[in-house]
Amino acid sequence: MQKTRQSQDHLQWLILRTGFVSARLDRRVPKILLGLMLVTLLAMVWSVGQGEYPVPPLDVIRTVLGLPTDNPDYGFIVNTLRLPRTLVAWGVGMALGMAGTLTQGITRNPLAAPGIIGVNAGATLAAVSLIVVFPWVPIAVLPLAAFMGALAVAVLIYLLAWNGGASPVRLILVGVGFSLVAGALTNLMVTFGNIYDVSQALVWLAGSVYGRSWAQVFAFTPWLIVFGLLSLVLSRELNALQMGDDVARGLGSRLEWQRGWLLLSSVALAGAAVATAGSIGFIGLMAPHIARQLVGPSHEGLLPTAALTGGMVVVVADLMGRLLFAPIELPCGIITAVIGAPYFLYLLIRDRK
Predict the structure, then answer these.
(1) CATH number of residue 168's parent domain
(2) What is the C-alpha to C-alpha distance for residues 88 and 79, in angstroms, rounded to an integer?
(3) How many whole angstroms separate alpha carbon 312 and alpha carbon 334?
(4) What is the mean pLDDT of residues 37-62?
(5) Using CA atoms, how far apart are residues 201 and 186, in angstroms rounded to an integer?
(6) Fewer CB in a 10 Å sphere around the end CB: N or C, the chain?
(7) 1 confidence band (pLDDT: 50, 70, 90)
(8) Domain contains 197
């Protein structure tokens, strides 16, 4: 019986070791990741080909690979106008998916997300302040301002939730309070700001990747790589946190230190995403739940799956926003809100106990 169980366990899990990092992956994870990548690539090719000047899918692929096509204008349309926008949508979705998974793991609450506990609200408040109150400040400062706003709110949440330790319940309650306060201050600035600056802020608040260029891609990518890799390295610690603080300490976890690094990673990913594409809601809530249904609760496989799921959802949402009421484009944040709000209510009813 023992040999049978060991054999079944070997068939179910993959043990990966590289350097000082090891991971225990469900055997479904590689197949699921490959499937998500293929679906995302198909959606990206289709998205890049859509617009006022349609580009056939094969020509999209040939243009991206630098191969010749029948129309010389495809190079400018694909590589300059549309591909950066699609890559930003994918990267922002990945960052929000990972940030949501980290937040749910830290708080041990399946309904938690950066947008719910105040991190996104802090980034939004800082960015809107820059746009409305300090319009003379260069827009290149926006990503840093959003990150600093998210970080400031996260630090305040952590300090106010501290009582001999940062309990997950206190983190959520304090975070919801900060989210409401930051949202009220944002609305106040939008109400009394200059109409031109406010119009810019409102477009940004809706959450959109319209007009994004290679500059945004290059500015956002380091944040995604650095803090995405840090999250993956710390993913095993999230598994220990799920068993409770006492058990995690018993297993040798440096609890507050690890929770602080995980929170910093979540804040950095969410802040960079908000700075790049505005407030795209519910991705941090939906992606971890979808990923958990696909690969189970182990964070070594859950984090990359949630990242690819979030990226796929935002790419598809941006595509839907461009096609549903063409030639009028809807911001992808509106599409994710239409899908995410009912999904949140479903989760709230399912987990009401």
Answers:
(1) 1.10.3470.10
(2) 13
(3) 16
(4) 90
(5) 10
(6) C
(7) very low
(8) yes
